């Protein structure tokens, strides 16, 4: 299974029940196709950087999940046919470094303290006293 993050922006004209229904729909698409949702981040209504389809605001929602690559095509297809989606993105975390970053994002979304990697302290080596001997 690969590590993914998806974010989508819903139209601001939707009422709370419709927003919840759309979010649940996309969560269901992920779980029904064999994905495992780790956590979700509800970012709420925000101003857009630029106007999209005459909207200046949008409802942001992020899902962190693990899935097989075949799920992504189905998820993107559902994003494209849904008229309430203004924008979406799916990010794949491939390398170990990226997967660690993904895990820290999941922990942050869950409000867990990050497991900080502790560097081993350098052992202090005693400095050798180098005194010059006076030559006669």
From TrEMBL:
Biased region (Basic and acidic residues) positions are 111-130
For the keyword Acyltransferase, the answer is: no
InterPro entries in alphabetical order:
Ribosomal_bS6, Ribosomal_bS6_CS, Ribosomal_bS6_sf, Ribosomal_S6_plastid/chlpt, Transl_elong_EF1B/ribsomal_bS6
Molecular function (GO) terms for this protein are:
small ribosomal subunit rRNA binding; structural constituent of ribosome
Q: Name one GO biological process term.
A: translation
Q: Where is this region: Disordered?
A: 104-136
GO terms under cellular component: cytosolic small ribosomal subunit
Q: Which domain of life is it from?
A: Bacteria
Q: Which UniProt keywords apply?
A: Ribonucleoprotein, Ribosomal protein, RNA-binding, rRNA-binding
Q: Give the similarity note.
A: Belongs to the bacterial ribosomal protein bS6 family.
The role this protein plays is: Binds together with bS18 to 16S ribosomal RNA.
Q: Write the protein's name.
A: Small ribosomal subunit protein bS6
> What organism does this protein naturally occur in?
Helicobacter cinaedi CCUG 18818 = ATCC BAA-847
Gene name, per UniProt, is rpsF
